[in-house]
């Protein structure tokens, strides 16, 4: 069973913030939320991860709700190079990473 | 630069002709794995290795072999390739399984005729 639910696809205008939602209502206390992306036919690329607190790095921000049942990945100023499939993955440190279908993000010029 | 390399990047071969896809990482990672990606099926794990001389089956191991004689290398071997092994293959490494950042190679596109 999939641990996460993501929209199949989303559009975002270039230069605007891209907000990608993820639902993980069955997340357990020791499970992290990870985000990866895959630009067409390239290897998946790690973006960010978090447990409870919001996180930010040079690529993105991760906002996790207080109940941890959902999260949002924010790309603050989307560019055409951010067009990719974005995967939200929930797992604990001993789990095997499992990729779902992800969200196909289209950045529009 | 920290990276995972795969060779070859593209390969067209014929049924039954043994082939090896190499994978190497320069990050001293203990955990390495192989995935295949097919349209509509997403990324599926073939084999993984927790450390040198330790390998185990993933979700779709049939028709594949691996070895881990050195920490940095994890070759994928197809002893007798078949057309249903036509796919995009990725090697990945990390400090350990699961909850640590995984670094993926650039991919190998294999076509078996």
Give a structural overview.
The complex is a heterodimer of chains A (109) and B (113). Chain A is built from no helices and 9 strands. With 109 residues, chain A is mostly beta strands. A 5-stranded mixed sheet of chain A has the order 1-9-8-3-4, with no helix packed on it. A 4-stranded antiparallel sheet of chain A has the order 2-7-6-5, with no helix packed on it. Chain A starts with 8 loop residues before the first strand and ends with a strand. Chain B has 113 residues and is mainly beta. In chain B, 0% of the residues lie in helices and 50% in strands. Chain B is built from no helices and 11 strands. In chain B, the strands form 2 sheets. In chain B, strands 2, 4, 5, 6, 9, 10 and 11 form a 7-stranded mixed sheet that branches. Chain B has a 4-stranded antiparallel sheet with strand order 1-3-8-7, with no helix packed on it. The mean pLDDT of chain B is 94.
Please give the share of residues in helix of chain A: under 10%
Poorly predicted ranges of chain A: none
Taking the sheet with the most strands of chain A, its summary is:
5 strands, mixed
Number of extended strands of chain B:
11
Shape of chain A: globular
User: What is the overall number of helices of chain A?
Assistant: 0
State the strand order across the main sheet of chain A: 1-9-8-3-4
Quaternary structure: heterodimer
Q: What value does the Rg of chain A take, in angstroms?
A: 13 Å
Percent helix of chain B, as a range, is: under 10%
Mean pLDDT of chain B: 94
State the order of secondary-structure elements of chain B, H for helix, E for strand.
EEEEEEEEEEE
């Amino acid at each position: 069973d999939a641990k996460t639910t993501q929209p199949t696809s989303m559009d975002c205008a270039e230069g605007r913030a891209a907000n990608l939602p993820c639902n993980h209502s069955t997340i357990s206390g020791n499970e992290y939320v990870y985000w990866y992306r895959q630009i067409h036919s390239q290897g998946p690329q790690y973006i960010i991860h978090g447990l409870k607190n919001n996180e930010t790095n040079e690529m993105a921000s991760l906002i996790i709700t207080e109940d941890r049942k959902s999260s949002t990945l924010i790309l603050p100023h989307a560019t055409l190079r951010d067009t990719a499939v974005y995967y939200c993955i929930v797992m604990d440190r001993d789990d095997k990473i499992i990729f779902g279908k992800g969200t196909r993000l289209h950045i529009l010029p | 630069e920290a990276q995972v390399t795969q060779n070859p990047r593209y390969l067209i071969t014929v049924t039954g002709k043994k082939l090896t896809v190499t994978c190497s990482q320069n990050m001293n990672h203990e955990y390495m794995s192989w995935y295949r990606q097919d349209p509509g099926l997403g990324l599926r794990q073939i084999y993984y290795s927790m450390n040198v001389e330790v390998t185990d089956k993933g979700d779709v191991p049939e028709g594949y072999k691996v070895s881990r004689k050195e920490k940095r290398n994890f070759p994928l071997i197809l002893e007798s390739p078949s057309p249903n092994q036509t796919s995009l293959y990725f090697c990945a490494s990390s400090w350990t399984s699961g909850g640590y950042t995984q670094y993926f190679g650039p991919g190998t596109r294999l076509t078996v005729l």
